[in-house]
Amino acid sequence: MPRPADSPAPKAGPVTLAMVARRAGVSPQTVSNALNSPGLLRPETLERVSRTIDEMGYRPHRAAQTLRTRSSRLIGYGIRPTAPGAPAPVMDRFLHALSQAADEAGYRILLFASPPGTASLDGHEELLDLHSVDGFVLSGTDRGDPRQAWLAKRGVPFVGFGRMWSGRQIGDWADVDGASGTDAAVEHLVALGHRRIAFLGWPRGSGVGDDRADGWRRAMRRHELPVRGRRAHSVDDIASARQAAGPLLDAGATAVVAASDVLAMGCYQALRERGAVPGEDVAVIGFDDSPTAALLSPGLTTLAQPLEAVGRECVRLLLSRMATPGAAPERVLLEPTLAVRDSTPRLPGG
After folding, report:
1. Cα separation of 195 and 124, whole Å?
2. How far is CA 282 from the centre of its chain?
3. Sign of CA dihedral 145, 147, 153, 157
4. String of DSSP letters for 25-89
5. To bridge 241 with a disulfide, which of 68, 248, 263, 287 should be the other Cys (CB 3.0-4.6 Å)?
6. Kind plus residue range of the DSSP H or E element containing 121
7. What is the tens place of the pLDDT at every residue in 214-243?
8. Whole-angstrom Cα distance, residue 133 to residue 135?
9. pLDDT tens, position by position, 82-109
């Protein structure tokens, strides 16, 4: 019977795997292989099937995939609260990049609360028992971190955003080369005529902080510049950094390289308390390129971390570890880039 003119058109059903197979001119098994085992297909077949999947907007049924592959398609990530006084959206940017990369690979990031401070195992065993996550992404991999050994002993795949600073290298990781970044910061300042270049970092013992301090020291020694009395330490807090920067400024530093944008903001405050102007009287360089850096007056020269690339590498490394559990660990070190703004002036005559 013909449909009345005023009745609604029937809704198109969801795109199925069989529909994709018919459009691409292949078997349903070939489409399944393109999604789950692309290495089994010839490149031209994989390209044709993938193009058809994109054109038709096909999305695999996750519940069916889970039953078939015994995979939850979930990746666990413990998220910690931001420390007071530290406006640090850097990890938010990483998490967005990580989630996007995981989604493109057909996975979801399952967040769970991780206690502040030292890394712990809280939440990891529960996620394995209740949600059967396929693996974990770890951040904040400081010395004494128990998570890597615990996961490795249980055969649970994991990848670190950050090196395993304990000295015992376990597992795969992707990290930003902090030493390369602070080395480049010193080179930039030397080219502008600065010679009294101080470093404002975190207390010794932090893997990331020590790495960034090492790059500053390496570049200073390469240029035969003094480092004694030109280093100060602070927790990642603006008020604490303001106090720590004082002795560096009193000692006549014409430039300060900070281990984070938060520490650089503390240096800004210390300069203003002395009636000095950041970017005119003393050059300041931060690290992280947080959104605040460009909004400061003057705009803060800082090192931008390639967080999108780190997120993609973490997902790639984790999926590779799931596919080949016995493969040798892979480590990826990515370089930051210097975002130059008005806080690094050329010295008169420099």
Report:
1. 48
2. 30
3. negative
4. TS-HHHHHHHHH-GGGS-HHHHHHHHHHHHHHT----HHHHHHHH----EEEEEE-PPPTT---T
5. 263
6. none
7. 999 999 999 999 999 999 999 999 999 999
8. 6
9. 655 444 567 788 999 999 999 988 899 9
Answer yes or no: is 8 within a domain: no
Would residue 338 count as lying in a domain?
no
> Which residue, chain included where needed, has tokens 């493969």?
327
Residues 314 and 199 in one domain: no
Does the N-terminal peptide bond of residue 298 adopt cis geometry, omega within 30 degrees of 0? Answer: yes
Q: Measure the N-to-C terminal CA separation of the chain; round to a whole number of Å.
A: 88
> 203 lies in which domain range?
178-305
Q: How many domains does the chain fold into?
A: 3
pLDDT given at position 90: 73
Same domain? For 36 and 112 the reply is no
Only one residue has tokens 């035969």, namely 224
Is 169 found in the same domain as 83?
Answer: yes
What's the predicted TM-score (pTM) here? 0.76
Quick one: tokens of 265? Answer: 């903001």
Instruction: Specify whether 206 is located in the same domain as 245.
Output: yes
Is 339 part of a structural domain of the chain? no
315 part of a folded domain: yes
Which tokens is 173 given? 């990781």
Dist CA 91 CA 279 (whole Å): 27
How is residue 117 annotated by DSSP? S
CA separation for the pair 59, 16 (Å, rounded): 8
